[in-house]
Amino acid sequence: MNNADKIYDLAVPGVQKLIPYTPGKPIEELERELGLTQIIKLASNENPLGPGKKALAAIQATLKDLALYPDGNGFNLKQALAKKYAVEMNQITLGNGSNEILELVARAFLTPEFEVVFSQHAFAVYPIVTQAVGATAVVAPALNYGHDLDAMLQRVTDKTRLVFIANPNNPTGTLLDHASLEAFIQALPDTCVCVLDEAYCEFVGDQSADNSIAWLEKYPNLLITRTFSKAYGLAGLRVGYGLSSPQLADILNRVRQPFNNNMLALAAAEAALTDAEHLQNTIEVNAQGMRFITEGFKKLGLEWIPSAGNFVLVDLKQPAMPIYEALLRKGVIVRPVGVYELPNHLRITIGTQTENQLFLQALTEVLSSNV
Ligand SMILES: *Cc1c(COP(=O)(O)O)cnc(C)c1O
Q1: Model confidence over 79-88: pLDDT tens digits?
Q2: Is any atom of ligand 1 closer than 6 Å to the C-beta of 348?
Q3: Domain spanning 4-50+277-368: which CATH class is it, in words?
Q4: Which of 229, 274, 318, 370 is least enclosed by beta carbons within 10 angstroms?
């Protein structure tokens, strides 16, 4: 160990052992590495249509004000969200991406004496925020790749301070039905905060029938997180939010940095909420692409996990890394999911029709060339 390495011993124990989140490979990086020019990225569940026109116009109109600090309370965006969901503004916490909300809830509620329950194959940020504050992760085995709510409930004790559930789940795309989910939330002790991560909720059909927001009135320990990164096409701006009881939102807002959302993000998100057409297009392109890609899997004799999101996990029945790398060499970036204990699967984000075709063509070539 050299001298500089000694600094690791000074980090808090949770951080010493922390394995950082691996993001999808950026297009520019692959360009630099392989000198390719035509690259498609279907790795991070971003919106293949890009941001909507209204969001772009709002960004343009806001540029002139960039010398000023943003509104630290995000008044306009909160007002728009409050109206959309029929909640009070004091029930909303704005985050620099919904990932920040996940971190805020961990920082506000966890110490090393507490436990956090989440599922096997659940979103990779849950173990990270848990470990960073030195709390103990308790992982319940998955059921058919999705959440096993009974197995999760069995692991809840008086030491459990947080439970994370992603619905739909990333990376598996599995969806819980609302009756079971509510029964689970109801069964939780009131000493345990339930985080319901709905990053992909816009892609789930029939929103009105399955309104988790109505639960907020009944469960003051419920935190619903949502984002502008996926269906709204604003991942690069970093804006997400939490919906909860006013008391829980108050706690999160105490630990939040005063200007955590930048001015362009606030303006673009507010405008994006008014762009029903872009959202509708996004949902339709996703549904068509999902059918197209899964049809392609079928023709290739591959199995996949039915997905309620804008991505799909395909089972290659062989180690996925060589296939991932062969796809990279053809300029197609997808997502390996070995860190999720799924070494034989790849996660594919649904792209535009052209991107989906290029992906399937590349996959067909790679699988037939015996990598
Ligand atoms: C993408 C994602 C998020 C959050 O993304 P942000 O860009 O930070 O809003 C949260 N949860 C899940 C399950 C996701 O896949």
Answers
A1: 999 999 999 9
A2: no
A3: alpha beta
A4: 370
Q: In this predicted model, what pLDDT tens digit does every residue of 45-65 receive, in sequence order?
A: 999 999 999 999 999 999 999
In order of 49, 58, 98, 202, 281, the CA distances from 54 in angstroms are 13, 6, 22, 18, 14
Q: 3.20.20.150, 3.40.640.10, 1.20.1250.20, 1.10.760.10: which CATH number matches 53-272? A: 3.40.640.10
Which residue's alpha carbon is nearest to atom 13 within ligand 1?
A: 170
- Taking CA atoms only, the protein residue closest to ligand 1 atom 14 is 199
Query: Whose alpha carbon is nearest atom 11 of ligand 1?
Result: 199
Alpha-carbon distance of 336 to 348, in angstroms, equals 9
Residues of the chain with CATH 3.90.1150.10: 4-50+277-368
DSSP-assigned letters across all residues of 101-152:
HHHHHHHHH--TT-EEEEETT--THHHHHHHHTTPEEEEEPPBTTB--HHHH
Q: pLDDT per residue over 164-222, tens digit each?
A: 999 999 999 999 999 999 999 999 999 999 999 999 999 997 665 568 999 999 999 99
* CB 95 near ligand 1, within 6 Å: no
Q: How far is the CA of 207 from the centre of ligand 1 (A)?
A: 19
- pLDDT score at 12: 87
pLDDT at 321: 97
Ligand 1, atom 3, lies closest to the CA of: 199
The per-residue pLDDT for 209 is 57
User: What is the predicted pLDDT for the residue at 206?
Assistant: 67
Distance 319 CA to ligand 1 centre (A): 26
CATH 3.40.640.10 residue spans of the chain: 53-272
For residues 137 and 116, the answer to whether their CB atoms sit within 8 Å is yes
Q: Measured in angstroms, how far is the CA atom of residue 227 from the centroid of ligand 1?
A: 7
Atom number in ligand 1 closest to CA 98:
9
